Automatic annotation (TrEMBL):
Record field: transmembrane: 56-74, 94-116, 137-158, 164-183, 280-302, 314-333
Entry's cofactor comment: Binds 1 zinc ion per subunit.
Cofactor: Zn(2+)
Gene3D superfamilies in the record: Metalloproteases ('zincins'), catalytic domain
Similarity section: Belongs to the peptidase M48 family.
Identification of the protein by name: M48 family metallopeptidase
Amino acid sequence: MLSILGTLYFVYVLIKLYIATQEIGFVAKAQHQNAVILSPSSFLKAARYKIASERFGMVSTLVDYGLFLFWIGYGLRTLEGWLITNGGVWESVVFVYAFIGVNYLVGLPLDIYSTFFKDKAFGFSTIDAKTYALDQLKAMALFVVAGGAIVALVAWIILSFASWWLWGFGAIFAVVLFINMIYPTLIAPIFNRFTPLENPELSASIESLLQKAGLKSSGVFMIDASKRDKRLNAYFGGLGKSKRVVLFDTLVEKLSKSELLAVLGHELGHFKHKDMLKNVAMSAFMLLVMFGLFGNLPASVYEALHVSMSPHSTIALFLLLSPLVSFVMMPLFGAMSRHNEYAADAYGSACESKEALKNALMKLADENKSFPMSHPLQIAFYHTHPPLVERLKRLE
C-alpha cells in the first residue's frame, strides 16, 4: 500500500510539473503576439510575472516532494522515536507541532524569496522586514494556541471512537464554520487595521446595493493592505451576523465609484446565488472524502513506515497526503467555481453596468499583472476564475 501511495504522489508531482511547463510555453509564445486587453507594456510584464511564478511553483513542488520522501523514508519514524512514549493526546500535539515546524522551516526561505525578491522585482510587495517578522510571529502564536487545540481534539476523537473519521469530520467541519464566522472580526484584525469607510457617498451606495441584494452586514470597512502589497481586492467576510464588506485601500484608490460598485455587485452575485453555501457543501464533501480515506488506511502503511498506528502518525499522514486528494478534486471544484463567476459577473454588471464591470476587471488585471489567457490544463486544475479574455467575451 505504501508503494501505491508513493507512486501516486510521484505521478501527482509529474502532472503538476507538466502543467507548469505547458503554461510557461503557452505564455512565452503568447507574449510575443499582439497584446490583448492590457497595454503592450503591461501585457509583457504580466507574462513575465506569470512565467516567473510558474517556475517558482515548480521549485516549490520539488521541495514538497523532497519533504514527502524525507518523511516517509526517515522522518516520521525518527520523530516518533524522539517524542512518543505512550501516544497520548498531548504527545500527539507535540509531534504535530514538530512535523509542521520542520515543514515551515524548509518552506520559509521560499516564502522569503517570493515576498522580498520575486514580488518586489515586479512591483507588488511593499512589506518590510519588521512587518513580515511580526506576521510570522502572530501566525505562529495562532497556530500554537488554536492549532494545538484542534490537534488535541482530533487526537482525542481517534482514541475515543471506533469510527473516529466520521466524528473527526463532523468536529473539524464545525471548527471550519466557526473560524469563518469569527475570521473578519477576531482573526483578520490581528494582521490588518480595519477602519470604517470614511466616504459617506460611497458608503451609502454600497448600503443600497446590500439592501437590494437582501444582505445584512455588520458594516463596510477598509483595510491597510498597501503596507504589504499593491494588489487590488475586496471581499465579503464572515458568516451570520459577522458578515462585513472589506475593501483593500489599494482598490478604493485605483477604481472609480461605478467600477467599485460593479466589483461589489459581482461579490453580491455570489451571495444572491448562494455560492457560499455551495462552496461550504463542496468543502464538506472533500473533507469527508479525506477523513474517509485517511481514517481507513490499512495497518500495512504504518508498518511500512515503521510507525505506530496512533493519532500522531495518522494526523501527520493526513497532512502529508491530503494535497493528493484535493488535487484530484480541483477540476470539479474549478469548473463549478468558474460557472459561478460568470453568473456573478452578470449580476454585477446589472447592479451598475457592463461597461463599469469590464473597466474594473481590466484595471484589476493591469494592477495585479494578471495575464489574461492560460493553457487549458492550467485552467482546468487551478483556475477558480475564468481567464479575463473569456469573462469579457461573456459580458459582451
